[in-house]
């Protein structure tokens, strides 16, 4: 029996070596040229072609370096990345999530601090760098990619048809929604099945009711908390939008929302600035524009929530730090930023980028009064994150299972379990 | 003496290859994750030994406690519904096929087709059909004048889990059907014929003779349903997302585990220690309950 | 045959029941075939059309969807990889699994329950849960980025349920057959191969399909363990269609329709053996 066991194991090992040898042999053949290969991972499967074009530009300037861009499915990206980095086979260049999610890799030291290596970083705005800075040690770990802004999209054709104007106040907005609904359209494409779309809804509508930056700064410092009436009251505004949402809106998922707006069945879509590219691509005849979340009364400053979308970082264990640095410096350049802005219709944060697309121009204007997208920026540093709590609780609120007081008290309880300023 | 050695050799010969693979690739990682659950973690790095602290957290601290018991409740719902709906229908269909009902040749081929779809495909397709406004289910209800029954199937807290369970039953009912069909067919013909000749009625024939004789099949199906209900993950993930929406009503131990251990898509952060602890609880529960059922059901198996 | 459900054999209640049951079964069959046809039809539409007119026939039959899907980076290669990985995994699972089931079901010894439970422990472990230790293990034995790693994992994943089901069926085979064979001088291997295996053909067919489908459709393990594009199996190749915010539904449906074909073929093939095994079992 022991003999059989040994033979079995030997066969297994020999077999595995044959196969393992097989794949590394062919890899060796590819690497016979003396190029340095960098692996660049991301979750943006939509943008693979664009990134490859950008990489071609980089490779033309840097003939000894080859960059392999691989995009993984968004929902699995974090897991794959963690498993690979822990196992020592992570990528050299990493597309990083921002704020709290950055900590997952930054805190245990898996990322390379970039301040010294990439001097171009000093040209980026401070708020923009915040998304790529680790809260635990204050180091910058990523070259910011783009900022996203949360807005209200509207269908210009429907507005023209019904003679509507861009609303400024909340009441004007509701009046428009009434008119649209009376004409047989759906007022608002938004639904509740995907909790994160409700968080975005909150991000667009609520800041103008809870006091935008004033409230944000107070809450982050611990001088007030989420049970503050300002915040709670702002959530109640969301309830007023329910009559204008599609029938059975709790069953409407993100894709349904997009399709309702794209197919011109809904007049408004509350979402992020990243939608524009998709809307335009899917329905080239769609005439749309954006406005910011409405204010309580005329004359109030009108804020939009914004946040840093992602950044490009470098693995601390990379074998090719010189080449990786070269690539990151390229990504921080105006040229790269301009390229990505033009091709992806995203608002790159690189200094010197010009927004020729009118849509981006408008978003830029709206951003003159911006406020941090509260949960993403301030409260994703530990679990349970403010975002995950808010998403599910808002679902409960919109479905009338719980009220706004319940929502804020549970958010508060969850976040204060790890958020130090709340614990004094 | 030689017979004993001979027998041992043969036993080992047959079970060793499979046992080896399962031990290396399943049992070993299982123990590793139990090991992981006894530590606290700094994001993805192991920190210090904390013994059972993670387990205590699951059962007592907000929000873990709420989510955990909520999820278990849903798993129980999965098991009960699947057991009573899916397996009863499977038993019925299996028996009808055995009785060569008209068209059984075609039915037995068609019934298993849903199993061939990937879970992702099933999730999408049924997600579309259950869409509250465009879905075929609600459209049919409206056309038939039953408009008030047209709800937000996947969006309503009370209906979401039953809807997903229904889809899962749609997918899997062919399996117990065929297993029971095979089971009934392995009952020797003489027994069945003898019963008919003796004038035993259909009802008694089924309950007193056929059913007891397929106990091994019943055991298989019951235990697999049990394990499946405790581990269900992908079906819920594709139809309701990782967060068990809406408002945790579809959350199961599987999604809770995945979300805790690996973090939500971009909202959550991985908590490997607590996640592993939840995983361990899942294993222990599944193992314990399955072992118990197997022993209990094995006793009822009748050998001819 | 005696006991068959026929109208002429039944009284009024019997006839009514037969009709009800038939309605149930036909209803379920419609419920089964409709999504299949719907998926195939949707694969010829544009993304917008899929949502705008989900149940109508496509306005224009976009065969280009299939061309696009095939061209997006070596779909043919992905297909080939899936076939290799799935068929080899199934072959190994059937061999080792039936052997193990035989070793558990046909011998009486003290540890048989323990061995059985070890295999069962495998069913209960959601292998995804142990992904990080598994990852380190695979890397440790040098099998990262190989198809062999996937095969081993899939085999391990499928083994417990296979053993469970096959052992269950093997137990129902009367001991008398085995005794007769021994008297005739057959050794254990012969008993396994010539007596027990042929009699469990229906369950083997069942287990083959039961295991082949999740292996064929799995995308999580290939995602973690395969980095080279040329080794990717089909589901991984398809995951490219899922963007963070945008999903190419038309391409997805096209690729899902392509992906289900081998499983359908395998199934139709297996169902023949399943049936054959059924009738063989009846005449014992």
Question: Would you give an account of this structure?
Answer:
The complex is a heterotrimer of chains A (424), B (304) and C (284). Chain A has helices at 2-30, 48-61, 74-86, 100-106, 126-130, 156-162, 170-182, 195-205, 207-210, 212-221, 229-239, 254-262, 275-282, 321-331, 334-344, 358-366, 374-378, 386-398, 404-416, and strands at 36-42, 65-71, 93-96, 142-155, 186-188, 266-272, 288-291, 304-314, 347-348, 370-372. By secondary structure, chain A is of the alpha/beta class. Chain A folds into two domains: 37-147 and 309-364, 3-Layer(aba) Sandwich (D-Maltodextrin-Binding Protein, domain 2), CATH 3.40.190; 150-306 and 368-422, D-Maltodextrin-Binding Protein, domain 2 (3-Layer(aba) Sandwich), CATH 3.40.190. In chain A, strands 1, 2, 3, 4, 5, 6, 7, 8, 9 and 10 form a ten-stranded mixed beta sheet that branches. In chain A, strand 1 (36-42), helix 2 and strand 2 form a beta-alpha-beta unit. The longest helix of chain A has 29 residues, at 2-30. Chain A is globular, with a radius of gyration of 24 Å. Chain A starts with a helix and ends in an 8-residue tail after the last helix. In chain B, helix 3 runs parallel beside helix 8 (157-172) and helix 3 (64-98) packs across helix 9 (174-185). Chain B contains 15 helices and two strands. Chain B has one domain: Orthogonal Bundle (MetI-like fold), CATH 1.10.3720.10. The model of chain B has no long low-confidence stretch (mean pLDDT 85). In chain B, 72% of the residues lie in helices and 3% in strands. With 284 residues, chain C is mostly helical. Chain C folds into two domains: 2-64, no CATH class; 73-279, Orthogonal Bundle (MetI-like fold), CATH 1.10.3720. Chain C is built from 13 helices and no strands. In chain C, helix 5 crosses helix 7 and helix 8 packs antiparallel against helix 9. The two termini of chain C are 16 Å apart. Chains B and C meet through helix 1, helix 3, helix 4, helix 5 and helix 6 of B and helix 1, helix 4, helix 5, helix 6 and helix 7 of C.
């Amino acid at each position: 029996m022991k003999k059989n066991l040994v033979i079995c194991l030997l066969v297994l090992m020999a077999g595995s070596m044959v196969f393992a040898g097989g794949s590394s042999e062919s890899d060796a053949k590819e690497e016979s040229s003396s190029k340095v290969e960098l692996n660049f991972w991301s979750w943006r499967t939509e943008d693979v072609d664009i990134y490859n074009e950008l990489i071609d530009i980089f490779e033309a300037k840097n003939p000894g370096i080859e960059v392999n861009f691989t995009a993984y499915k968004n929902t699995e990206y974090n897991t794959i990345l963690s498993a690979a980095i822990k196992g020592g086979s992570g990528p050299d260049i990493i597309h990083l999530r921002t704020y709290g999610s950055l900590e997952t890799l930054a805190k245990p030291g898996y990322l390379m601090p970039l301040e010294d290596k990439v001097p171009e970083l000093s040209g980026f705005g401070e708020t923009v760098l915040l998304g790529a800075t680790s809260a635990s040690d204050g180091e910058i770990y990523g070259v910011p990619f783009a900022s996203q802004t949360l807005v209200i999209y509207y269908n210009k054709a429907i507005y023209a048809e019904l003679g509507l104007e861009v609303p400024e106040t909340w009441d004007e907005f509701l009046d428009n929604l009434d008119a649209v609904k009376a004409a047989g359209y759906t007022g608002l494409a938004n639904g509740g099945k995907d909790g994160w779309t409700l968080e975005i809804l909150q991000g667009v509508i609520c800041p103008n009711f809870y006091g935008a930056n004033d409230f944000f700064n107070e809450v982050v410092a611990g001088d007030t908390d989420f049970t503050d009436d300002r915040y709670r009251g702002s959530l109640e505004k969301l309830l007023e939008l329910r009559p204008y949402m599609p029938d059975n809106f709790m069953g409407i998922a993100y894709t349904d929302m997009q399709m309702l707006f794209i197919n011109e069945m809904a007049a408004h879509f509350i979402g992020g600035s990243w939608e524009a590219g998709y809307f335009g691509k899917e329905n080239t005849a769609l005439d749309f524009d954006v406005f910011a979340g409405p204010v309580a009364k005329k004359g109030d400053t009108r804020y939009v929530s914004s946040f840093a979308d992602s950044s490009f970082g470098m693995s601390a264990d990379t074998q090719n730090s010189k080449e990786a640095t070269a690539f990151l410096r390229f990504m921080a350049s105006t040229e790269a930023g301009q390229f990505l802005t033009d091709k992806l219709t995203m608002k790159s944060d690189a200094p010197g980028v010009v927004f020729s697309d009118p849509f981006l121009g408008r978003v830029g204007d709206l951003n003159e009064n911006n406020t941090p997208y509260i949960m993403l920026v301030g409260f994703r540093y530990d679990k349970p994150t403010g975002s995950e709590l808010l998403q599910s609780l808002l679902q409960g609120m919109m479905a009338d299972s719980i009220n706004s007081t319940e929502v804020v008290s549970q958010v508060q309880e969850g976040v204060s379990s790890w958020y130090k300023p709340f614990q004094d | 003496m030689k017979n004993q050695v001979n027998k041992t050799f043969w036993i080992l010969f047959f079970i060793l290859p499979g046992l080896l693979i399962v031990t290396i690739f399943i049992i070993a990682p299982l123990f590793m994750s139990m090991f992981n659950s006894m530590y606290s973690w700094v994001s993805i790095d192991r920190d210090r030994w904390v013994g059972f602290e993670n387990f205590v957290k699951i059962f007592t601290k907000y929000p873990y406690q709420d989510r955990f018991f909520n999820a278990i409740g849903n798993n129980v719902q999965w098991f009960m519904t699947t057991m009573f709906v899916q397996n009863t229908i499977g038993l019925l269909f299996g028996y009808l096929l055995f009785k060569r009902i008209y068209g059984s040749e075609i039915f037995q081929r068609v019934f298993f087709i849903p199993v061939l779809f990937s879970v992702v495909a099933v999730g999408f397709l049924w997600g579309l059909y259950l869409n509250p406004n465009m879905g075929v289910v609600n459209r049919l209800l409206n056309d038939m004048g039953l408009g008030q029954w047209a709800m937000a199937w996947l969006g309503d807290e009370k209906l979401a889990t039953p809807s997903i369970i229904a889809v899962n039953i749609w997918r899997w009912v062919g399996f117990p059907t065929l297993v029971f069909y095979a089971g009934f067919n392995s009952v020797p013909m003489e027994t069945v014929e003898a019963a008919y000749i003796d004038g035993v009625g259909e009802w008694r024939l089924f309950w007193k003779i056929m059913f007891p004789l397929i106990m091994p099949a019943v055991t298989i199906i019951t235990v697999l349903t049990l394990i499946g209900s405790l581990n269900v993950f992908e079906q819920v993930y594709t139809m309701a997302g990782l967060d068990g929406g809406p408002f945790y009503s579809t959350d199961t131990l599987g999604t809770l585990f995945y979300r805790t251990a690996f973090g939500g898509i971009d909202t959550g952060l991985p908590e490997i220690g607590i996640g592993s602890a939840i995983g361990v609880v899942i294993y222990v529960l599944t193992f314990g309950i399955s072992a118990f059922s197997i022993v209990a059901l094995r006793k009822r198996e009748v050998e001819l | 045959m005696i006991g068959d459900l026929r109208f002429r054999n039944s009284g009024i209640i019997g006839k009514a029941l037969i009709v009800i049951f038939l309605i149930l079964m036909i209803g379920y069959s419609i419920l089964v075939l409709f999504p299949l046809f719907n998926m195939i039809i949707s694969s010829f539409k544009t993304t917008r059309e899929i949502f705008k007119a989900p149940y109508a026939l496509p306005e224009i039959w976009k065969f280009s969807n299939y061309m696009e899907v095939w061209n997006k980076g070596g779909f043919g290669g992905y297909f080939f990889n899936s076939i290799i990985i799935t068929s080899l995994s199934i072959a190994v699972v059937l061999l080792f699994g039936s052997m193990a089931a035989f070793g558990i079901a046909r011998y009486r010894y003290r540890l048989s329950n323990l061995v059985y439970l070890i295999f069962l422990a495998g069913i209960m472990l959601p292998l995804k849960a142990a992904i990080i230790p598994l990852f380190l293990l695979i890397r440790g034995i040098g099998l990262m980025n190989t198809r062999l790693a996937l095969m081993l994992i899939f085999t391990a994943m499928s083994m417990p349920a296979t053993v469970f089901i096959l052992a269950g069926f093997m137990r129902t085979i009367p001991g008398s057959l085995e005794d007769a064979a021994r008297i005739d001088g057959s050794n254990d291997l012969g008993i396994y191969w010539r007596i027990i295996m042929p009699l469990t053909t229906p369950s083997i067919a069942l287990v083959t399909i039961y295991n082949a489908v999740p292996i064929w459709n799995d995308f999580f393990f290939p995602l973690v363990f395969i980095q080279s594009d040329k080794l990717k199996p089909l589901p991984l190749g398809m995951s490219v269609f899922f963007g963070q915010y945008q999903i190419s539904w038309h391409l997805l449906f096209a690729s899902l329709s392509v992906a289900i074909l081998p499983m359908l073929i395998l199934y139709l093939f297996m169902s023949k053996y399943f049936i054959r095994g059924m009738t063989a079992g009846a005449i014992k």
